[in-house]
Amino acid sequence: MQKILITGLSGFIGGYLKEKLEPKYQIFDLDRDLLDKEGIDQRLQEVDPDFIIHLAARTEVEKSFYEQTSFSSVNYVGTVNMIESARHLKNLKLFVFSSTMETYGWQPESDLIRDGKEYTLPVFTEETKQHPNAPYAVAKVGCELYLEYAQRSFNFPFCAFRQTNSYGRKDNDFFVVEQIISQMLKNPDEVNLGYGEPYRNFLWIDDLINLYETVIEKHEQARGEIFCTGPDNALKITDLVDKIAKKIGWNGQVNWNTKPKRDGEIWVLNSSPAKAERLLGWKPKMDLDTGLDLTIQIWREKLLTKID
């Protein structure tokens, strides 16, 4: 049975991956600090994995504006440590890196959205120029560049996903979809949110897990490639809030702009999964309405269980 080492195994995506992959593969955790290079060397040599899925990172984009050094250290230096340890493995078939659509950052269209002007929503592809505009995103671009360097210099087998906002969490209400849902379910009168004007697209967790499974199975086709995950369905956060409110039957007041201003706010993120479909035969299957219904159900049950 082939071996997969997953960093961040206890996180949102890692937990789902373990459940999905365990019947077919031996799954191992890193069980080391990302900044402990010697410990990483030891663990990777001990496991000798066929595949590495590198998820571990600080992911709360908003916090990266205030904890810049920590994000840069963990997300960039930690990834370099993983790459440098992994490139000495003899049986490694693929190193899968979890990047982010946030790497696109500022785009010319962003100024139009910020100024409230109408225009056709852009669709980012793997060829769209990156302008990272948050410490979190800058570190992720650095990791992508380091992976490309390692491939050119050492024939390092990697692929990377510029992941969309994923949703369907059961235990964490920090991120936007779960935050809106949990606030509305707990507070019938009002909720406190940040900006309403940015556009975002959203990927259901099972679709993302299926993409990871697909690149493991088709590692030769995925090698050396960077993929956007899509789907191309971005909507304004105010519209997302309205959609969720109607599904829940919530009629309270939304207090916008109640969070600290982000100087590097990204106003539009929207990407196409066309390359992944072309090379891997993968594309998102879950529509947003159904995914939101399922997430609402998750949080209703969770909050009811707490009450009981």
How helical, in percent, are the residues? 40-55%
Any idea what the CATH architecture is? 3-Layer(aba) Sandwich
Classified in CATH, the superfamily is: NAD(P)-binding Rossmann-like Domain
Please give the oligomerization state of what you see: single chain
CATH-derived topology: Rossmann fold
CATH class designation: Alpha Beta
Total strands? 12
Main beta-sheet strand count, sense and barrel state:
6 strands, parallel
First and last CA, distance:
43 Å
- Look at the helices and sheets and give the structural class: alpha/beta
Shape: globular
Low-confidence stretches: none
> Could you state the order of secondary-structure elements as H and E?
EHEHEHHEHHEEHEEEHHEEHEHH
Counting DSSP H or I runs of 4 or more residues, the number of helices is 12
What do the pLDDT scores average to? 93
With strands numbered from the N-terminus, the spatial order across the biggest sheet is: 2-1-3-4-5-10
Beta content: 5-15%
- Domains, number: 1
Gyration radius, rounded: 20 Å
Question: Would you mind describing this structure in some detail?
Answer:
With 308 residues, the protein is of the alpha/beta class. The chain has one domain: NAD(P)-binding Rossmann-like Domain (Rossmann fold, 3-Layer(aba) Sandwich), CATH 3.40.50. 45% of the residues lie in helices and 15% in strands. It contains 12 helices and 12 strands. It has a 6-stranded parallel β-sheet, with helices on both faces. It has a two-stranded parallel sheet with strand order 6-9. It has a two-stranded parallel sheet with strand order 7-12. α1 links the parallel β1 and β2. The N and C termini lie far apart (43 Å).
